[in-house]
Write a structure and sequence with these properties.
Strand content: 5-15%
Helix content: 40-55%
Radius of gyration: 19 Å
Largest sheet: 5 strands, parallel
Distance between the termini: 7 Å
Number of strands: 9
């Protein structure tokens, strides 16, 4: 059976734990190596990954390209606008064609349903590299970063402050799978999708008060208030102003708490320079860990 990686809530906790442990092991094994050296086991040897981008990207593009190379495979990068997808070819037709040409497909898409449709007919693994609904690869990188710092994420408290967006959704999906508590602080009009909130169950607590979410947290996470495609920029800035992660807010978290942000950051909006550049920030480890987490996802897909 083809192994797709579309959403964290779809996978068993044991598979997710195996992926995260493999990511950490692969990172450890590469210490001191040049970036282009292939992993010893080369699980993607002779395999080709297609990378399709409907949205602009820095970390996703470079990390997946580096990931497939380090696994011993090759990548083909294409913008959707440069493909027949951009001229109206049915998603299902593109999926069937690429299934004959490559060994896996990574998609960074506007619409989550498009990735679902692609995967339904694809004969090779499909990886969700971001949609309007979720961002599962980012959360694995975040969890890898947290576990490098604290050990197991199980039993920890993570506070999400800001927009109830796709990254927030994937954190909610992960909470019951990895056994951590997630406190989400969002304005009422920008709350997470209730269907995704339900997937977090008792592990997720929703509030509109950033201080309530951050109180006693081990990790504080935020994201840009205005995502690609959002049209209400000024309204968002006004609504989210009380949700800025500054040092005063960080000081309400546990002693030794860390800060994460998936980047790019709008400094002075969702986070202050003092926090993002301060000693509690792990954002550069977090960004690097996209490579290692995605290598483990690819290896898991290819092992199916």
């Amino acid at each position: 059976m083809v192994r797709h990686f579309l959403d964290i809530h779809r996978l068993d906790a044991a598979d997710l734990r195996a992926i995260l442990d493999d990511a950490r092991a692969r990172k450890e094994a590469r210490k001191g190596w040049p970036k282009g050296k292939v992993d010893a086991d080369a699980p993607a040897k002779d395999r080709v990954l297609a990378m399709i981008f409907e949205k602009n990207s820095t970390r996703t593009r470079f990390s997946f390209d580096a990931a497939i190379r380090q696994l011993g495979g090759q990548g083909i990068i294409a913008n959707a606008a440069d493909m027949q997808l951009g001229r109206g070819e049915p998603i299902e037709d593109t999926a069937k064609v690429l299934s004959r040409m490559v060994d896996a497909v990574m998609i960074r898409a506007n619409d989550h349903e498009d990735v679902e449709r692609f995967a339904r007919v694809s004969e090779v693994p499909v990886i969700n590299a971001l949609t309007d609904r979720s961002h599962p690869c980012q959360i694995l990188a975040d969890l890898l970063t947290i576990e490098e710092h604290f050990g197991s994420v199980e039993g920890k408290t993570i506070a999400w402050v800001g927009d109830g967006n796709n990254v927030c959704h994937s954190f909610m999906h992960a909470a019951p799978k990895f056994g951590f508590k997630l406190r989400v602080a969002c304005p009422a009009e920008y709350h997470p999708d209730l269907r995704d909130l339900e997937k977090g169950g008792a592990h997720v607590f929703l509030t509109s008060d950033p201080a309530e979410a951050v109180q006693g947290a081990d990790v504080v996470v935020t994201d840009t208030w205005v995502s690609m495609g959002d049209q209400d920029y000024e309204a968002r800035l006004a609504t989210f102003e009380p949700y800025t992660v500054d040092q005063a807010l960080m000081d309400q978290a546990n002693e030794g708490a860390v800060f994460l942000h998936c980047l790019p950051a709008h400094r002075g909006e969702e986070v202050t320079d003092e926090v993002i550049d301060g000693p509690q920030s792990l954002i550069w480890d977090e960004a690097e860990n996209r490579i290692h987490a995605q290598k483990a996802v690819l290896a898991w897909c290819f092992a199916g």
